[in-house]
Amino acid sequence: MDGAIGPQGVGNPESAEDSGRYGTGLFTPDGEGEGERIDYGALAYDAVTRARLTSLGVGPGWRCLEVGAGTGTISRWLVDEAGVDEVLALDRDPRFVRARPDGRVRTMTADVTDTTLAPGRFDLVHCRFVLMHLPEHADVLRRLADWVAPGGRLVVGDAIDLTTALSPPSAYQRTMAAMWEVLREQIGTDITWVTNYPYLLRDLGLQEVGAEIVVPPLTVDAPITAFWKNTWGGMRDALDASPLLEPGELDQALAELASPSLAALSPGMITSWGRRPPSS
After folding, report:
1. Over the stretch 107-153, which tens digit does the pLDDT of each residue have?
2. Which GO molecular function entries does the Swiss-Prot or TrEMBL record give (predicted)?
C-alpha cells in the first residue's frame, strides 16, 4: 500500500485462509485512524516515489496499474500532475481511493495473490509496501512483471531496516525490533530479502534495472515519526504482550519519538525499477 507498513491488495476480507494477514487482525482498513496512519506514511515517501516515476518518464499516454493503492495519493498524482491517461487502483479494500467520474482513475477490489487475476497490461505497474508481507512474494512479483506492457516500467518498493539490529539499545530500538517480530508472527512480514530486488527484476528479464534507498529524517514533526506513533499505537496490545519488551517500555519508546533529543534512524524504503524489453 502506498506509504504504509500494512499492505492493501492482500487477501480477501474475512476468508478463513486469510487469518493472520493484513486486514484481519492488525491495521484493519475500517479501524479508527487507519486512513490517517496511511496518509502519514504517504507524506513520508510520496515525494520519493513521485521523483522516481518522473525520472522514468511517466506521463501523457501512459496506462498505469497501482497495486495496493492505499488512500490513492499516487494514483491521483499520476492523473492530476503526471498527466497519464488512466490509472487502475487495485486494492483488497479500495475504500480510501476516490474514483474519478471521467474514468481516468478506476478502482478494482482484488487479491493480488490470486493466480487467476489478469488486470491487463500497463505502461507502468507500481507496487509499494505490499510484497514484504507476502510469503509468495516471488510469484506475485513475476505476475506484476507479466502485467507490464512491452517497453513499460515495473516499479516496486518495500521497507528496509538497516539500523535497528545494530543500534545501541534503547526503548525505541527494542520497540522497533519487537514490531518487526510481531509483524512476522502475525502477518508473515519479511524484509530480509528486499535488498535482492534489483537481482530479482533482472532475473525476470527486465532491463535498465536500478534501485535506491531513502531513510526519512526521524524528527519530532516529521511524517514518518507520526507514522510510527500511529503504527505502534495500533499494535499496542500485541507489542505490550511481546517478550522483547519490558512492561511500560512501549510508552517509553513513544516518549522518545516525541523528544527532540532522540538520536536514532528510522527504517527506510527501497525502491527498484526495470523496463520490459520493447519486443517482449
Report:
1. 999 999 999 999 999 999 999 999 999 999 999 999 999 999 999 99
2. trans-aconitate 2-methyltransferase activity
Helix or strand or coil: residue 165? helix
The residues, ordered by sequence, that sit 6+ positions from 134 with a Cβ below 8 Å of its Cβ are: 7, 10, 112, 113, 140, 188
Asked if the structure places residue 139 within a domain, the reply is: yes
Query: By CB neighbour count within 10 A (0-12 exposed, 13-18 middle, 19+ buried), where does 119 fall?
Result: middle
> Does residue 6 lie in a domain region?
no
Decide if 8 is inside a domain: no
Give the contacts of 202 (CB within 8 A, at least 6 positions apart).
Answer: 209, 274
In whole angstroms, give the CA distance from residue 259 to residue 62. Answer: 45
The predicted model scores a pTM of 0.90
Q: How far apart are the C-alpha atoms of 16 and 274, rounded to whole Å?
A: 36
- Could you tell me which of 105, 151, 148, 149 has the C-alpha nearest to residue 127? 148
- Which structural domain, as residue segments, surrounds residue 270? 16-275
By C-alpha distance, which of 196, 163, 183, 167 is closest to 232? Answer: 183
Q: Are 10 and 68 in contact (CB under 8 A)?
A: yes
